[in-house]
Amino acid sequence: MPRRMPFIMLLSTALIPWLMLLLFPPLTGYLVNPEGKITFPVIGEMRAAGFTKKQLKDYIVGELTGKQLLINPVVTVRIINFRVTVLGEVGRPGMIDVPNEKISILEAIGLAGDMTLYAKRENVLVIRSEEGKKITTRLNLTPTRSSNLLTTT
């Protein structure tokens, strides 16, 4: 019966960083410049503004597979510098960094130190940007006995 030899894999120290990069790629962010473009390695400069996150992801995946650079690449598109501004009668007015791209009005107010005693809870102005347009909504945040906590006016 033949004797079994142990399997030994020798790696050059020059290959280890490359192997680690393949097994555990770093999370990289790309800054959208004032023209709405990012510079992506190998693909080059590409337009990012005006696309949904899914559209941008699909485009990057298509470019990487179309140029035969990667097979089944995993691409995640996230907004990494999403901020909201809370002003007025709150404990700590100012900008709030939001780590997960989504925040409710109550969460934003809570992170800003809650509304002070002098705040007009029945007249809270929310200003949002959607597709380059400012959209305003007024909310009534006074407690009510009905099942709705928030009402819009």
CATH superfamily of the largest domain: wza like domain
Question: Could you tell me the number of beta strands?
Answer: 7
CATH level-two architecture of the largest domain: 2-Layer Sandwich
Biggest sheet record: 3 strands, antiparallel
Concise structural overview:
The protein has 153 residues and is an alpha+beta fold. It is built from three helices and seven strands; from the N terminus they run αββαββαβββ. The protein has helices at residues 16-23, 53-66, 105-111; strands spanning 37-40, 44-47, 83-86, 94-97, 124-130, 133-140, 151-152.
Characterize the structure shown.
- By secondary structure, the chain is an alpha+beta fold.
- It folds into two domains: 78 residues, 2-Layer Sandwich (wza like fold), CATH 3.30.1950.10; 70 residues, no CATH class.
- Helices cover 19% and strands 22% of the residues.
- It is built from three helices and seven strands; from the N terminus they run H-E-E-H-E-E-H-E-E-E.
- It has a three-stranded antiparallel β-sheet, with no helix packed on it. The protein has a two-stranded antiparallel sheet with strand order 1-2.
- Strand 1 and strand 2 form a beta hairpin.
